[in-house]
Amino acid sequence: MEAARMSKEDLESRLDDSGTVVIDVRRQQKEAQSKIKNAVLEDPDRVDSWAKKYPKDKNLVLYCA
Fold it and tell me: Could you tell me where the DSSP H helices lie in the chain?
């Protein structure tokens, strides 16, 4: 399954939208230089344990770069 990509500008326009949840799944989260506003940190190796806690009516944006 392939996920759609989002431009930086598109993401920036959605950061204050309550219908969007940004999930930071980078492996090196602790050493990360920047953090996206209101992003939630989740372990990319434990998707099965956290994926179902997010409402299906929200737009989930996974940040992995």
Answer: 8-14, 47-50
